[in-house]
UniProtKB/TrEMBL annotation:
Pfam short name (any one): FecR
Keywords per UniProt: Signal
Claim: NADP is one of the keywords in the record: no
Domain LysM: 33-79
Compositional bias per record (Low complexity), positions renumbered to this chain: 341-353
Protein name (database record): FecR family protein
Region called Disordered, residue ranges: 339-360
Signal peptide (residue range): 1-25
Length: 392
């Protein structure tokens, strides 16, 4: 067999494939792999090494191949997903708090997440799961996903990852995929969001009649409805999907401004500047700038909110505004300057000059206002955060 590097393929619903090329009719919605024939490929060898059962005759009939031992190089083979040989891929829990369960069992750091499992968070809980390539999917409180697919396809060596959001919200940060044989999808009962490298959120509202996709970085393809046509949702935009289809993308609200952060006797008080078009604000505290390790979160219709925190807690603050439509806006991530007894010497580099992410907030022993700095909007690579304009 020839080396597998460079094999070209796509995994698409049959309706999309039929629109792209005149192929034999297939059962509606059966997923197919679209494989490009390479030199020395034969149907019998492909079936023997990469297909369940090793029988090539269904592929021959499906694609109307006259000679299974002589196929034109560059021609396309459609291979049903159910016939592909795969091997499991394992995700691991990198952060959790509260009641976060995997198949009904309490999660722990390093817990494995595999295909077929269900991950769920209770009230005031969260969980973050990392994939082998560094991509992550995180769930805030009151959310549930089913891991429909988490596997490697042997024919292409591509990662096939599909998470079905059953209730609540999810946030995904996907490492750009240089290999065309990989994908990352978040589906809901109403929509499919597919990406090749980006940061995005998917939510199902309480009615169950709307799925919301919000794109923080990159572009997400969203398909929904009885005759789905993929809608491209770019960075800074969101789209609402219903049983009828996906609506045109709309601009997300900008990051809210944090105008006051003050230590209280029991924790911290946060005041957000009110924003036109916002019906609520989401406030999250985390110990890391990537917001995988969340310690507190809440959504409020007021411009101020308080959290009870232990002494000496350290944290970053992330704020988003929720539009009247329900779409959550772009995030603003905040961290402090360095409080010190005297100004730094002229030869001493400033915190901004180092290029490193600023430290998180630290709560002082006595209630007092804390310094505030804006670190960025939605970035998940700490060293890439550069815009740290002081708000004081």
């Amino acid at each position: 067999m020839p080396a597998q590097v460079g094999r070209s393929w796509f995994l698409l619903p049959v309706a999309a494939l039929l629109a792209a090329a005149p192929l034999a009719a297939q059962p509606a919605a059966e997923p197919m792999l679209r494989y490009t024939v390479r030199p020395n490929d034969t149907l019998s060898a492909l079936a023997r090494d990469f297909l369940v059962g090793g029988d090539y005759r269904e592929i021959q009939r499906l694609n109307k191949v006259a000679d299974p031992y002589r196929m034109p190089i560059g021609s396309i083979l459609l291979i049903p997903d159910r016939l592909l040989r795969t091997e499991p891929v394992t995700g691991k829990v990198v952060s959790f708090r509260g009641s976060a369960t995997i198949d009904g069992r309490q999660a722990a750091l390093g817990s494995e997440v595999r295909q077929g499992m269900r991950v769920e968070t209770g009230a005031n809980a969260s969980i973050a799961i990392a994939m082998p390539d560094g991509s992550t999917i995180a769930l805030p409180s009151q959310s549930r996903i089913h891991v429909d697919k988490l596997r490697r396809i042997l024919l292409t060596d591509g990662l096939d990852r599909n998470f079905r959001l059953e209730t609540g919200r999810s946030r995904s940060s996907v490492i750009p995929m240089k290999d065309p044989a990989s994908n990352f999808r978040v589906t809901t009962p109403l929509s499919v969001a597919a990406v090749r490298g980006t940061e995005f959120r998917v939510a199902v509202d309480d009615s169950g009649e709307r799925a919301l996709t919000e794109v923080v970085a990159g572009t997400v393809g969203v398909a929904a409805g009885p005759a789905p046509a993929e809608v491209a949702v770019p960075k800074g935009y969101g789209a609402i999907s219903t049983p009828a289809g996906t609506e045109p993308p709309v601009a997300l609200l900008p990051p809210p401004k944090l105008i006051q952060l003050e230590k209280t006797a029991t924790g911290v008080s946060i005041v957000v500047e009110r924003m036109e078009g916002a019906k609520a604000y989401r406030v999250e505290l985390a110990t890391d700038v990537a917001f995988l390790h969340i310690i507190e979160e809440a959504q409020t219709e007021e411009s101020s909110i308080s959290f009870a925190l232990p002494p000496n807690a350290t944290f970053f603050v992330r704020l988003t505004a929720v539009a009247i439509s329900g779409l959550e806006g772009l995030p603003g991530i905040y961290a402090p300057g360095v409080r010190r007894a005297s100004p730094p010497a002229a030869s001493e580099p400033s915190a901004d000059a180092t290029g490193a992410a600023p430290p998180p907030f630290r709560l002082w022993a006595e209630p007092r206002p804390l310094p505030i700095r804006l670190t960025g909007h939605g970035t998940v690579q700490p060293l890439a955060i550069a815009a740290r304009t002081s708000l004081r």
